[in-house]
Amino acid sequence: MDRRNKSTTTNSAPAAAAANAKSLHCIVKLGGSAITCKNDLETINEDNLSVVSSQLRQGMISGPCHGMDWSRRPGSTEIQTVADELDDKLESDCRRLIVVHGAGSFGHFQASRSGVHKGGLSKPLVKAGFVATRISVTTLNLEIVRALAKEGIPSIGMSPFSCGWSTCERNIAVADTSTVVKALDAGFVPVLHGDAVLDTSRGCTILSGDVIISHLAEHLRPDYVVFLTDVFGVYDRPPTEPSAVLLREIAVHEDGSWSVRQPKLQDVSRQGPASLLT
């Protein structure tokens, strides 16, 4: 995982204090390759998204729950609502959960075609690509929020750009987590995503979902971080390479450093802050 969160953040201490008062149970990363058809431009893997949404509901919500997507779907003339069936006396309990998702087949084409990740916001192509990238990734975010809401998960989409997150030389510079904590305290499930953001040095760049998770985990200290991917786990190199080795056990130490326990590898170890969260 590329870890770019070394710069100063704002208002993270109050957010962390609030989070510690009510423990964050889990951060779930929905990998872009798992929830979209990565070789088909802007195409969601409906089956995978439906399954994971149902599994999250089963694992995170106790008590009765009802669908919360009351919007009209394309091709439909009706709005699906269960408002008349809701009983205000029946309460369900949702564990404190944050969802972060990758972009998959959304956003990558627009970002790479325009060079948003390289910066240069004064260039017309980059500025147009910045807008196009955000349209694409926020479209995916809305569909994921809808899928979760359909299962009765009180999900709220939160875009890093809209929340004021920014970078400097692609390292997180401003990432106020207080809005995320307030949503958790109100009983919602924040759903964040990789996004195009402003960069004080380059003008703009791409802030990945993995970096977002790393930052949230560092400041909000969840009990678990879970990754949904299209591979079997964490590898010592890109899993598409023939010599890639599956790392079956990773130990994260008190000082934040980590090491691989199984299998025994000579070259896979880290002495600094952990960049792999399992």
Q: Would you give an account of this structure?
A:
The chain is an alpha/beta fold and about 280 residues long. Helix content is about 30%, strand content about 20%. The protein contains seven helices and 14 strands. The strands form four sheets. Strands 5-8-4-1-11 form a five-stranded parallel beta sheet, sandwiched between helices. A four-stranded mixed beta sheet has the order 7-6-9-10. Helix 1 (about 10-20) runs parallel beside helix 6 (about 180-185) and helix 4 (about 110-115) packs antiparallel against helix 5. It is globular and about 55 Å long. The N and C termini lie close together (about 10 Å).
Instruction: Write down the oligomeric state.
Output: single chain
Report the sheet with the most strands, covering strand number, pairing sense and barrel closure: 5 strands, parallel
The secondary-structure class comes to alpha/beta
Strand order of the largest sheet: 5-8-4-1-11
Instruction: Count all strands and give the number.
Output: 14
Radius of gyration: 19 Å
Helix-strand topology string = HEHHEEEHHEEEHEEEHEEEE
Runs with pLDDT <50, length 5+? 1-10, 13-20, 268-278
